Write a sequence for this structure.
């Protein structure tokens, strides 16, 4: 598992979360509403299935960007990005995987199984294209859905993660943002 570090410019830290962009298969480029929504983020995490490295260039123009590969990324991109990462943000540990590997009955369980040893506070994952935000076993799970291919989800989406200054009682906050109408929703774990 790749270890990364991000030194926050200030608190709270806003992290834009994206997955399953599938460019150019599902869209020619990232939607303008996504780019507008991520403007001002301190960091962007992409949970795989980029398909084209051009996605990274678009996101890096907005903020520092870290990504992992998904199951449909070409071998050269998978080799470059790896399949799992943990980002240290001061006292926070944010894990990033696609969600197609690991043992479990569903994507969230498989994703969590892949990173459990890393003891993350937050896990950002994708694969199912189904947005989800909620706590499981003390870890905030955030699947931002897909901004270009909502599949069985009700709408295209991305995620936002807000990390307060670490300390007693500090808790990460995540949300799923619908693309198009600006409304937010956070489908829970059950």
């Amino acid at each position: 598992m790749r270890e990364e570090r991000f030194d926050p410019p200030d608190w709270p830290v806003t992290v834009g979360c994206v997955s399953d962009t599938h460019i150019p298969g599902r869209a020619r480029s990232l939607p303008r509403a996504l780019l507008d929504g991520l403007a001002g983020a301190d960091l962007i995490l992409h949970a795989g299935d980029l398909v084209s490295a051009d996605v990274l260039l678009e996101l890096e123009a907005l903020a520092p960007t870290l990504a992992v590969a998904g199951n449909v990324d070409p071998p050269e991109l998978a080799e470059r990005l790896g399949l799992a990462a943990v980002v240290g943000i001061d006292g926070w540990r944010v894990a990033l995987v696609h969600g197609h590997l690991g043992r479990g009955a569903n994507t969230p369980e498989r994703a969590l199984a892949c990173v459990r040893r890393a003891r993350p506070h937050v896990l950002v994952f994708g694969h199912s294209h189904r947005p989800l935000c909620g706590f499981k076993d003390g870890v905030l799970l955030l699947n931002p859905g897909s901004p270009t291919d909502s599949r069985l989800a009700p709408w295209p989406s991305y995620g936002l993660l807000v990390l307060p200054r670490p300390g007693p009682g500090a808790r990460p906050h995540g949300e799923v943002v619908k693309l198009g109408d600006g409304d937010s929703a956070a489908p829970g774990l059950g």
Summary: Helices lie at 32-38, 54-60, 75-81, 107-115. Residues 107-115 form the longest helix (9 residues).
